[in-house]
Amino acid sequence: MKYKSNAGFSHSQSDKLGVLITNLGTPESPTSGALRPYLKQFLSDPRVVEVPKFIWWGILNLVILNIRPKRSAKAYASVWTDDGSPLMHITKAQCQALAARCAQTYGDDVVVDFAMRYGNPAVDDVIERMLAKGVRKLIVLPLYPQYCASTTASTFDAVAADFTKRRWIPELRFVTHYHDDPGYIQALANKVRAHWDERGKADMLVMSYHGIPKRYLLNGDPYHCECHKTSRLLAEALGLQETQYMTTFQSRFGREEWLQPYTDFTMKALPGKGVKSVQVVCPGFSADCLETIEEIGEENREYFMAAGGERYEYIEALNSDPEHIEVMFNLVEQNLSGWRIEKNMITRQRLAQALGATE
Ligand SMILES: C=CC1=C(C)c2cc3[nH]c(cc4nc(cc5[nH]c(cc1n2)c(C)c5CCC(=O)O)C(CCC(=O)O)=C4C)c(C)c3C=C
Ligand SMILES: [Fe+2]
Ligand SMILES: [Fe+2]
């Protein structure tokens, strides 16, 4: 049979709404043996590395995969917790909290799950189990606030690739970005304000985003523009002047030019310009991970202090904060508007309330 059937389908099954949150993915363990297949899958994605396959294959398999896994394993080991990879356990917590929030409003008509673009739980496995639970309408929410082909479009590719193998595909809504969503900006602003309440302000608020090759921007990727818009809106919400914040780009990979200014160069230069205290926030990361905990929390702190800086603070990602879960819930609500299932569920919920049901 060419196309897969939906497992566990029965005619009496009621249609469910599915909410699938996704993130990038993480290795199974902080060892070079686990890093190799993870990096191979990640760096073989043509959305991530836009270099012709016949050139990239040799560089990746003969050079990078012989060097990088060992180096990255060391970095991962430094952030690994008893619960495993931070990205994995935070994403699990986000999923649980979002499921509880959705159940509050929609009861058991909604199925919430999470998947990782690379590694596990894989997008196709999770879609399979959601469809088996009767999901006929699916909202995919990649937890990347700023659209980027390397992340957002790559996630869409994985969902679409799964659908090409299925006989009966669900209705689909795919959230491509939420970089200027008022709830998201407010949640970020509240996180920074809470930090100020505890520690006071610094000379500069650095907003650091994951970088991409500059070539992707020149070829039309809106990512750079969306990062700057998030920064401007966050600065406005915090009442910061242009001299009190900056936007920088971190996590360079390879030799070509990436988006500038680079976070590491900035940290090395700021003390010499009289900026002796900084607070760093990473609005593009919805969950803390290697790139925030180690690269921003440790590595860049060292650069800043070694260059004469006096105070360096990293402000954590929104993670599973209740306000962040509410941001996700609102994105779900905005995206299910108009779906018949919504009307059924709301009607049923109102009816239950009117009858004084306690469930
Ligand atoms: C060509 C390389 C890369 C591009 C383009 C890229 C874009 C990009 N990545 C994220 C988010 C994350 N990246 C993470 C790790 C990571 N990223 C790259 C390379 C590119 N990323 C590598 C090789 C790695 C692995 C770690 C390492 O070896 O340095 C992570 C962390 C995952 C974790 O497990 O903690 C995240 C998150 C975004 C948002 C993005 C483009 C906008
Ligand atoms: Fe990355
Ligand atoms: Fe990094």
UniProtKB/TrEMBL annotation:
Record-linked InterPro entries: Ferrochelatase, Ferrochelatase_AS, Ferrochelatase_C, Ferrochelatase_N
Function of the protein: Catalyzes the ferrous insertion into protoporphyrin IX.
GO BP term, example: heme biosynthetic process
One of the record's GO cellular component terms: cytoplasm
Family: Belongs to the ferrochelatase family.
Source organism per UniProt: Alteromonas pelagimontana
GO molecular function: ferrochelatase activity; metal ion binding
Compartmental location: Cytoplasm
The protein, known as: Ferrochelatase
